[in-house]
Amino acid sequence: MSTLKGKRPLITVTALTALYRTDQLGFHLKLAMENGLSEDELVEAITHLAFYAGWPNAMGAAGQLKSIVESAAQNADGKST
After folding, report:
1. Residue 2: pLDDT above 60?
2. In the chain, which end has fewer C-beta atoms inside a 10 angstrom radius, N or C?
3. Residue among 39, 41, 48 nearest 70 (CA)
C-alpha cells in the first residue's frame, strides 16, 4: 500500500491552485520544491489544472512559481560570488 507522504505537497499545491488561494500558494510551492518536486513537475501539474480549475487560477499559480524559481536562482548566484 502506498502512502501519501511524498504526494502531499503536490496535492496541497493543486488544491490551493484550484481554489485560488494565492495567499498560501507561494509558501506551499516552495515547500513542494524543498520536498523533492521539480519545477517541471509543478509546471506540468499547473498546466493540467488550467483545463479543470480554470485558466486564471493556473496562470496565477504559474506566475508565482516563476517568481519563486527566479528568486531561488538569484539567491544561488549571489551565494556563489
Report:
1. no
2. N
3. 39
pLDDT digits (tens, 9 = 90+) for 12-23: 999 999 999 999
Look-up of cell digits 502506498? 2
C-alpha cell at 1: 500500500
Cα–Cα dist 11/32, whole Å: 10
Q: What is the 3-state secondary structure (H, E, C) of the chain?
A: CCCCCCCHHHHHHHHHHHCCCHHHHHHHHHHHHHCCCCHHHHHHHHHHHHHHHCHHHHHHHHHHHHHHHHHHHHHHHHHHC
Cell of 55: 485558466
- Nearest-10 crossing angle of helices 55-80, 22-34: 50
Residue 63 grid coordinates? 506566475
Compute the average pLDDT of residues 68-77: 92
